[in-house]
Input
Amino acid sequence: MKNTIQLQNVVWKEDKFYVAQCLNVEVSSFGKSKKEALVNLNEALELYFEDQKLTKMVKIENPSIVKSSFLHA
Output
């Protein structure tokens, strides 16, 4: 029996590619478009959860993007 897992993902552009990252587990992927990055992320997540227990998943509620800045040498 398969369970449906609700995950929070974020996508951003880095140079020529889009990066898709899952906020619940440390899995990410990339693609030439947002859609491709998310499709690749879903494939990576399916592989990740083949051997993982759901207890390792962090529950993310109402994520928000917060900008910060700092000075460096």
The mean pLDDT is 88. The two ends are 54 Å apart (CA to CA).
